[in-house]
Amino acid sequence: MDTRVMYSADQIKIPPELAPVIKQYTKEVIRSEEKWSQLGLYKWTTNYFAEQGGLPKIFEDDGSLVQNEKMISDVVHGADKFENVPWNDSEREQTLNTLFSQYSGGTDRIERSELPDLVADLKKSVGLDISEADYLQLLDNDNDGHISLSEFKTLFFSED
Description:
By secondary structure, the chain is mainly α. Helices cover about 50% and strands about 0% of the residues. It is built from eight helices and two strands. The chain has a two-stranded antiparallel sheet with strand order 1-2.
C-alpha cells in the first residue's frame, strides 16, 4: 500500500513557517490577477518569490527572460537555445553535444584537466561557488574520474 496517498486533511502537516508564506502569496495572487494573467502564473510566481528573496526579477513583463550578466547564455556559447521551449529531441541532443564538445575537446568525456574551464563558466554564469572536486563528485555518477555526455546532461535535465 502506498503510504504517500492522502485520504484526509488530518494527514496533511503544514510546517508552521510555511503558513504565512502561503497566505501572503495567495493574497498577492488575488491582488495581482491582471499582471499574472498577462505574464502567466508560473513566471509571475517566479518573479514574486525572487523579489521576496531580495533577488532581481527573472522574467520581463513580456515573459522573456531578463538579460543580465549572469545568464548562462552569456558565458556558454549555444546555451541560449535552452530558453527556446518547446524544442524537439534532436535539437536538444545537438545543443547538448555542442556544449559538451566545448569542454571535452571533442572526445567522449571531460577529463579532470578540462574541468576547470567548465567550473569557471558555471561559477560565472550561475554564481555557484562550488569546487572542482565537488562538481566532479556531483556529476561523475560512475566514479571513474571523468564526466561522460550522459553525466553532463544531468546539469540541464533531471533523470526521471
